[in-house]
Design brief:
By secondary structure, the protein is α/β, with parallel strands linked by helices. It folds into two domains: 171 residues, Rossmann fold (3-Layer(aba) Sandwich), CATH 3.40.50; 218 residues, Rossmann fold (3-Layer(aba) Sandwich). It has 15 helices and 14 strands. The strands form three sheets. Strands 7-6-8-9-13-14 form a six-stranded parallel sheet, with helices on both faces. A five-stranded parallel sheet has the order 2-1-3-4-5, with helices on both faces. The protein has a three-stranded antiparallel sheet with strand order 10-12-11. α13 runs parallel beside α14. The longest helix is centred in the first third of the chain and has 21 residues. It is elongated and about 70 Å long. The two termini are 35 Å apart.
Length: 409
């Protein structure tokens, strides 16, 4: 198999020496490094494989015009667009097998912006001064390896030299895996969950894996649900069990686990057979306790750990969530069936639990029935979501939908 090069994306006017060092590290591993210059100010200290002029033109305008924008955000957007277009062309030509980038805030925006356009499994390593803060804006829903540079990337010294070398060796190790991962041809089931519905999800997962399905499990912490919807949109998915829909409330009411306004829509719009369960809608993500107390004063709180405090949703919020879920089910283009656990939406929503509230569950069920089309099957079951009887009902319902589609499961 032909060896593919590592593509190093950076602003060479500020990170040229560091990129030269990275290139040397990769070459010491017996691999080839290509360099792409996304800088707009000074010249690169060495000839690059892709020049900044080429990047700017690929982004839609000559370099001089980019420099005259007078706005660094607009300039980096143009260069990121150009770098992405060129990197994808090199990928389609079979010339690159992985991407590496280094930078501060702006360099990280460009480097990860290019990386997010590549599929899961394609090696991506970002060495950044931003890697010790909130990385979601950079990583998004892709498998980007972020390595904290510790020191500013201003020269190769006893600290950055080690970090840069480790990053280069990590990418080299991934590039040496010439065979790569070969996926199975089994039918695929996408399943959403959180720790508070894990008992149910494990039983469901085991049942369908025993039938020969490949089960993709997504934790609905914001990025997880967004990633699930993206995978459902892009891949051949046989069925979806949306067991955890907390992200809908988080988006609507300002919680931490926000997956955007279209959560739970991808499978329904695509026509993938879907079982919808309003799991985990009894709480929002509130962050550390002190932050949660400030953001949600007077609310019922449960400290999950030092970083996560759950905030009990009110009955009014639960009713809004019910309306959103029902409306999305009404718009489904394929088979869909809904199951409501009348014994509680999560492990915390049951007798003795911190968020037990049977009135909220009953209110949800009434609102859900009122909004849901009579054409959509609805089953309200007298169990907590983690009860074996409820999990078995989810399994049976999914089996019924798959049978109607003629699935070989």
């Amino acid at each position: 198999m032909k060896e593919r090069a590592a593509l190093i994306v950076a602003t060479m006017d500020t990170k040229g020496k560091e990129v030269q060092y990275l290139s040397e590290c990769i070459q010491e591993s017996g691999l080839t490094a290509l360099t792409l210059d996304g800088g707009t100010l000074g010249e690169s200290p060495f000839p690059t494989s892709v020049t900044r002029d080429e990047v700017a033109l690929a982004g839609g305008m000559p370099l001089r015009q980019v420099q005259d924008l007078g706005d660094e955000a607009k300039a980096i957007a143009v260069m990121t667009s150009g770098a992405t277009a060129i990197a994808k062309r090199l990928y389609k030509e079979g010339r690159i097998g992985g991407i590496m980038s280094i930078g501060g805030a702006m360099g990280t925006i460009m480097g990860t912006g290019v990386m997010r356009s590549f599929p899961a499994g394609f090696p991506k390593v970002m060495i950044s001064t931003m890697a010790s803060s909130n990385t979601r804006p950079y990583v998004g829903t892709k498998d980007i390896m972020m390595l904290y540079s510790i020191c500013d990337l201003s020269g190769v010294n006893r600290v950055t030299g080690k970090v840069l070398r480790n990053g280069a060796n990590a990418l080299a190790g991934m590039l040496r895996d010439q065979l790569g991962y070969v996926p199975t041809t089994a039918p695929v089931l996408a399943l959403s969950t959180l720790g508070t519905t894990e008992t149910c999800s494990q039983r469901v997962r085991a049942a369908f894996e025993a039938k020969g399905m490949e089960v993709l499990v997504f934790h609905t912490t914001g990025a997880g649900g967004q990633a699930m919807d993206e995978v459902v949109s892009e891949e051949e998915i046989t069925g979806v069990i949306d067991l955890s829909l907390d992200e809908i409330g988080n988006n609507r009411f300002g919680g931490d686990y926000d997956a955007g306004p279209d959560r739970c829509s991808a499978a329904l719009r695509k026509g993938v057979p879907t079982v919808v369960v309003p799991g985990n809608i009894d709480f929002l993500g509130g962050g550390p306790l002190k932050m949660a107390q400030l953001r949600f004063p007077g609310r019922r709180l449960h400290v999950h750990n030092s970083a996560i405090t759950a905030v009990r949703t009110t009955q009014e919020e639960v009713n809004v969530i019910a309306g959103i879920i029902a409306t999305r089910c009404n718009e489904a283009r394929g088979l869909v069936s809904c199951l409501v656990p009348a014994g509680g939406f999560s492990a915390w929503d049951q007798p003795g639990g911190p968020f037990y509230d049977p009135d909220a569950v009953n209110s949800f069920s009434r609102t859900f029935r009122d909004v849901l089309s009579p054409a959509v099957p609805l089953h309200v079951l007298p169990f907590n979501i983690n009860a074996p009887e409820f999990a078995d009902a989810v399994i049976a319902t999914m089996e019924e939908l798959l049978a109607k589609t003629g699935s070989r499961v």
